[in-house]
Write a structure and sequence with these properties.
The complex is a heterodimer of chains A (271) and B (261).
Chain A lengths: L11 H14 L1 H14 L5 H21 L6 H8 L3 H45 L1 H29 L3 H7 L5 H11 L4 H29 L7 H41 L6
Chain B lengths: L5 E5 L5 E5 L2 H34 L3 H4 L3 H30 L5 H6 L1 E5 L7 H15 L3 H8 L6 H6 L1 E5 L13 H13 L7 H13 L5 H18 L11 H16 L1
Antiparallel strand pairs in B: 1-2, 3-4
The chains are: A mainly alpha (271), B mainly alpha (261).
Chain lengths: 271, 261
């Protein structure tokens, strides 16, 4: 049955609103987990695996709350602890995917750019002279740049919720989780863009605060005590910022995972 | 657990209506879309006007006006046009589309008055004029985030509130196959439709509405599961004719609707 408590598919705005509400309601728990995650990230290898696991953990807690099976942080951690190293492996795989996508897309875009630019440039130069060649150069450069950005965005969106799937689905390993994310995000690329943009806009006031100390430093003499103090303050603020914002993004991913599973697998439909 | 704030509104006719508020997320999505559209059109218009002015200023001898004077007037007119577009975008759309803009339409939200009446030019103008104030230092953002009724300063002054439009509309886009339509009278004969609860029906309708977005595997499993539960609920042991789970669900939906008419 469709109960009021399992909301079913959500529109992008509601994904963000719901995430914000859930983060606020269990702020202490998420903030604590996030602090641990960020501190672990400073420790190489073992710490990175812990960091990855904690990000999955936060998304899992959000998802479980949405399907009315809330867990305590400890229970959830016990459930996914055996997969800790898979989170590190997933991170490495994702980095490899991003790099190879970047290289692949860049090669295609540049080749196309040269081809189109060559034709267009010759044609325009013949008609308008040097101005035409410059114009075609600018157009082709812009198109190449846009192509690379769009290609990367597309791939990033398709693998966006991999770690949530890894944290939620018992038989799924690192590479399967990428496949799952790929499957679930099909047809939802635009929706994901709006979720990410809206979530970013919501965090913007906090982001601006973190830039204030650096703005102040522009008017200071480097090397002075005051300058160093501000550097320290700036470091503390940016650490605090990272700790505060990480859970928000992970809860957004948890909610998005719920939304996509409702859309693609009818998670909320039963009798 | 309620994820979204709800409000109750007493209309002038003393009818109590309940609305779900738009939420920070919905309003952020709407703002992003509207600002992209607005700033793109502002840039295009600016580019066009500058082009026109540069053409006109070449005719100063012809017009027998000083080039400086033309420049001054042109700048003033351009500034005025830009301001008119910036303010007019929101006034125009919100007034003509009953409280919606392209962004709000995508985000499925709407501005209404505090007494649930549609907004008029007066309210949309106030909201639009105060928009720059709300944008400074994210004043509006914090007001929406912290206030109980999620009002930005423009909303307070105009006496408006932003709510979600109802997402679960009737199943207009549900396609019923001819086979299912043929089968449904036979189902009506053998099935006790009194046992189909409104909840059951709502689930079938949701499934039929959303089935095209499902993965092939999920769709197969879900339709079989739903059909099986439904058959158990209405104590139907054998089907009158053989059919797929999807056809069965379509036929039930169709028959249920026919019966209610």
């Amino acid at each position: 049955m469709i109960s009021a408590s399992t909301p079913g598919p959500l529109n992008p705005g509601n994904v963000v609103s719901a995430a914000l509400r859930m983060y606020r309601d269990r702020f202490k728990m998420y903030f604590g987990l996030s602090a641990r995650a960020v501190l672990w990230a400073l420790v190489p290898v073992y710490g990175w695996a812990q960091y990855g696991m904690h990000t999955g953990l936060m998304s899992r807690l959000a998802f479980q709350e949405l399907v009315n099976q809330p867990e305590t942080a400890r229970d959830a951690e016990r459930a996914i602890k055996p997969k800790m190293w898979s989170f590190l492996w997933l991170g490495l795989l994702l980095v490899a995917i991003f790099i190879s996508t970047y290289i692949g897309v860049a090669i295609v875009a540049v080749l196309l750019g040269i081809l189109v630019g060559g034709l267009l440039g010759t044609a325009l130069a013949a008609i308008f002279g040097d101005g035409g060649a410059v114009f075609s150069g600018i157009v082709v450069g812009l198109i190449t740049f846009l192509g690379i950005i769009l290609g990367l965005l597309w791939v990033v969106s398709r693998v966006f919720i991999s770690e949530v799937s890894l944290a939620m689905e018992s038989r799924v390993g690192a590479s399967d989780s990428i496949g799952r994310s790929w499957q679930l995000t099909k047809g939802s690329i635009m929706r994901i863009q709006f979720v990410v943009l809206a979530a970013y806009l919501v965090t913007l006031p906090v982001i601006i605060v973190t830039f204030l100390p650096q703005l102040a430093q522009l008017r200071m003499e480097p090397g002075t005590a005051a300058y160093n103090l501000v550097t320290l303050v700036s470091l503390v603020i940016s650490l605090a910022f990272n700790i505060a914002v990480l859970p928000f993004w992970q809860v957004v991913k948890g909610v998005l995972y719920y939304d996509l599973r409702s859309r693609r697998e009818g998670l909320d439909l039963s009798m | 657990m309620s994820l979204f704030n709800r409000i109750k509104i007493q209309t002038p006719e003393s009818v109590e209506l309940e609305f779900t508020l738009a939420g920070v997320g919905g309003r952020a999505v709407a703002l992003i879309i509207d600002y992209i559209l607005l700033w793109t059109s502002l840039l295009l218009v600016l580019w066009f006007l500058i082009f026109v002015v540069s053409q006109i200023s070449q005719w100063d001898a012809l017009l027998s006006v000083d080039a400086d004077v033309v420049q001054m007037w042109a700048t003033a007119i351009i500034a005025l046009v830009m301001f008119a577009i910036y303010i007019g975008y929101f006034i125009g759309f919100e007034t003509a589309w009953y409280g919606q803009t392209p962004g709000k339409r995508y985000a499925r939200i709407r501005v209404i008055r505090d007494d649930a009446q549609p907004v008029r030019v007066f309210q949309t103008t106030l909201r639009s004029l105060l928009r720059p104030v709300d944008d400074i230092f994210f004043l509006g953002f914090f007001c929406i985030l912290l206030g109980k009724r999620e009002k930005r300063i423009g909303d307070w002054l105009a006496g408006t509130v932003v709510v979600q439009t109802d997402p679960r509309t009737a199943g207009k886009d549900i396609k019923i196959s001819e086979t299912a339509k043929d089968v449904s009278p036979k189902l009506l004969e053998v099935m006790d439709f009194g046992l189909v609860t409104p909840d059951n029906f709502a689930t079938v309708r949701e499934y039929l509405k959303r089935r095209n977005g499902l993965t092939t595997k999920a769709r197969k499993e879900l339709s079989v599961n739903l059909a099986r539960s439904l058959k158990e609920n209405v104590r139907l042991e054998t089907l009158p004719v053989e059919m797929t789970a999807d056809t069965f669900l379509e036929a039930v939906y169709f028959a249920y609707q026919q019966k209610r008419r």
